[in-house]
Amino acid sequence: MFSQNRKIVVTVKPEHFHKEWRLVGKFHRRTNELLELLVMPPEVTCPADARQYYCLLMLNGSIRDTLRLRGLNNLDRPLTWTFDSGGQELGWC
């Protein structure tokens, strides 16, 4: 159980959209709490210490693929994505 339901926010820039970057969540291994959201290129591995943390893709595929499925075919300004500490998406704008 989480002590509080925090909001974790990440900013996705247009270059992340155009280069097929991924949205990755860094979770605490003991509590399964989402601690941080990372925007990473597909060839980079998660920078988490495996004894304390683990990483999961937060979306199916790249940021671009996910936004296109939601009707956004181009990104010309930064977008803010919000998740709660349980890893549930709260929204984007």
Describe the structure.
The structure is a single chain. It contains two helices and six strands. With 93 residues, the chain is mainly beta. The strands form two sheets. It has a three-stranded antiparallel β-sheet with strand order 1-5-6. It is globular.
SSE layout and pairing:
Blueprint: E1 7-12, H1 14-18, E2 22-28, E3 34-40, E4 53-57, H2 63-69, E5 79-84, E6 89-92
Overall morphology: globular
Count of runs of 4 or more consecutive helical residues: 2
Radius of gyration: 13 Å
Strands of the largest sheet, in order across it? 1-5-6
Distance separating the two termini? 28 Å
Main beta-sheet strand count, sense and barrel state: 3 strands, antiparallel
Note the run of SSEs as H and E.
EHEEEHEE
> Would you identify the regions where 5 or more consecutive residues have pLDDT less than 50?
none
The share of residues in extended strands comes to 35-45%
Helix content bin: 10-25%
SS elements, strand count: 6
Q: What is the averaged pLDDT score?
A: 91
In terms of structural class, how would the helical and strand content be classed? mainly beta
